[in-house]
Amino acid sequence: MSMNETPSSERVHIGFFGRRNAGKSSLVNAVTGQDLVIVSEVKGTTTDPVSKSMELLPIGPVLIIDTPGIDDEGALGELRVRKAQKVLNKTDIAVLVVDASDSDGGGEKRPLLTEAENDLVRIFQAKKVPFLVAYNKSDLLSKLPEEGANEIFVSAQTGAGITALKERIAHIVRTDDPKLKIVGGLIKPGDTVVLVTPIDSAAPKGRLILPQQQTIRDVEEADGIAVVVTEKLFTAALNGLRHKPALVITDSQAFAKVSAETPLDVPLTSFSILFARYKGFLEAAVRGVKALDTIQDGDRVLVCEGCTHHRQCDDIGTVKLPRWISEYVSGGTAEKKIEFVFRSGGDFPDDLSGYKMIIHCGACMLNDREMQYRQKCADDQNIPFTNYGIAIAYMQGILKRSVAMLPEITV
Ligand SMILES: Nc1nc2c(ncn2[C@@H]2O[C@H](COP(=O)(O)OP(=O)(O)OP(=O)(O)O)[C@@H](O)[C@H]2O)c(=O)[nH]1
Ligand SMILES: [Mg+2]
After folding, report:
1. pLDDT, tens digit, for every residue of 362-397?
2. Is the separation of the CB atoms in 26 and 156 below 8 Å?
3. What is the pLDDT at residue 105?
4. Which of 142, 196, 371, 411 is 20 to 30 A from residue 210's alpha carbon, by CA?
5. Would you say the CB of residue 20 lies under 6 angstroms from ligand 1?
6. Quick one: pLDDT band at residue 4, thresholds 50, 70, 90?
7. Distance, CA 172 to ligand 1 centroid (Å)?
8. If residue 61 lies in a helix (H) or strand (E), which one and from where to where?
9. Closest ligand 1 atom to the C-alpha of 136?
10. Which ligand is nearest to the CA of 45?
């Protein structure tokens, strides 16, 4: 990701789903105005999901995702269906592409949805993903049937209905719940926020990490004043302020020092806590972290990272966190043996059985839908789910203080 681009976790994820040959890839090319993906009359041309970030007017920054057809048969087919379903876990808006020329009505009536298409609609509804049904190949119809509420007739080939489709998607984006902001509800215009961002050897060269950049931007959008310091100069920064800050946000690694140096009447939290709230799983993560107190000798803990390229997260996840957890659960007595299993990048495992708990990274590269899906998978299997920063705050005894400004959260 370039520093000048909107991160993919912040883009509206638009997924194109449907049966093979319905024209999903053709429609993706028509909507984006680019030859992004391969189109052919052979069923099953698209074998893997393809994503592309772009600015798409009138919607804004989007991630467009083309998927393999879902009516595939056989072992390979099942794999493709699974891949398409995984895409749905992070999809903000789904477009169900239906071949309108598949009609028995002599090309005048819209075709009834097939079993596979109805299955998809049921999955959209179950996952609460807003969707549109795009009847494609409308150029093959002798007369266009009337459009229902969430239906639209388009032709990827002639371009008919493509602008209207984009406008309909933009409308859904605008009327969908407004996203909670990172510091939303926590500061007033004119407030000062002190952000503590350590620069250690594992930090990326020459820049701040994504959650820190996003938080600074968010403070600015809330008309706040962001003061950014390393933990070394934290007290100096506090002393230099004429008024007490409205909020201190620290990197979890500096929690102990920053907590000790923050006056008790100044609200203190961490980037991890605010991001868990922003992505919609803070309550579950605060509940889940308590499983740390029940870890027994021989238990397995899954440490999960959303991407593969953050040295700093890798260092916390694979080295520091296991050490801190081992020390915490042993409590100075005979050491308990915990088996840490590490997963990074790619997919979240379907089967979580056998794990005592899951500790996830801050997930700066994953969108809120994907994180809520992961948390829900864990919840469905009764496995406690938390994140790095919340685990650190809990083990250091400062979680209660770190969520005190969020009345909806009880520790
Ligand atoms: N007449 C007509 N043909 C279309 C239209 N859109 C797509 N096609 C044709 O339909 C066939 C399938 O198109 P694709 O875009 O590859 O379909 P797909 O849904 O991506 O198919 P898979 O990747 O195999 O799942 C191609 O031969 C396209 O040229 C359209 O609007 N009108
Ligand atoms: Mg395709």
Report:
1. 887 888 888 988 998 999 899 999 999 999 999 999
2. yes
3. 53
4. 411
5. yes
6. low
7. 25
8. strand 60-66
9. 31
10. 1
Cβ 128 vs Cβ 165: under 8 Å: no
Helix (H, G, I), strand (E, B) or coil at 123: helix
Could you tell me the two tokens for 64?
């467009």
The span from the CA of 101 to the CA of 140, in Å, is 6
Question: What is residue 60's predicted lDDT score, i.e. its pLDDT?
Answer: 84
The one-letter amino acid at 71: D
Query: Taking every pair of C-alpha atoms in the chain, what is the biggest distance, in angstroms?
Result: 80
302 within 8 A of 352, measured Cβ to Cβ: yes
Both tokens of 28, joined, read 């993706």
370 neighbors 65 (Cβ within 8 angstroms): no
Q: List helix spans (H) across 189-305.
A: 210-221, 234-240, 255-261, 271-278, 282-288
Atom of ligand 1 nearest to the CA of 44: 24
Q: 3-state class of 94 per DSSP?
A: strand
| pLDDT tens for each residue of 310-344 | 666 667 888 889 999 999 988 766 577 899 999 98
Q: Is ligand 1 within 6 A of the CB of residue 40?
A: yes
Tokens of residue 59, six digits: 């919607």
Residue located via tokens 């008919």: 160
Q: How far apart are CA 214 and CA 83, in angstroms?
A: 30
Indicate the DSSP class of residue 6: P
Ligand 1 within 6 A of 250 CB?
Answer: no
Report angle CA 30, 33, 55 to the nearest 5 degrees.
120
Residue among 21, 70, 102, 120 to mutate when testing ligand 1 (max atoms within 8 A of CB): 21
**Contact 161 CB / ligand 1 (< 6 Å):** no
pTM for the model stands at: 0.73
Q: Which residues are CB-contacts of 62 (< 8 A; sequence separation ≥ 6)?
A: 11, 12, 13, 14, 53, 54, 55, 56
User: Which residues partner with 93 through β-bridges?
Assistant: 14
What whole-number distance in Å separates Cα of residue 145 and Cα of residue 215?
48
CB distance 156 to ligand 1 below 6 Å:
yes
Asked if 83 contacts 49 with a C-beta cutoff of 8 angstroms, the reply is: yes
Written as six digits, the tokens of 392 are 């650190």
Dist CA 405 CA 242 (whole Å): 22
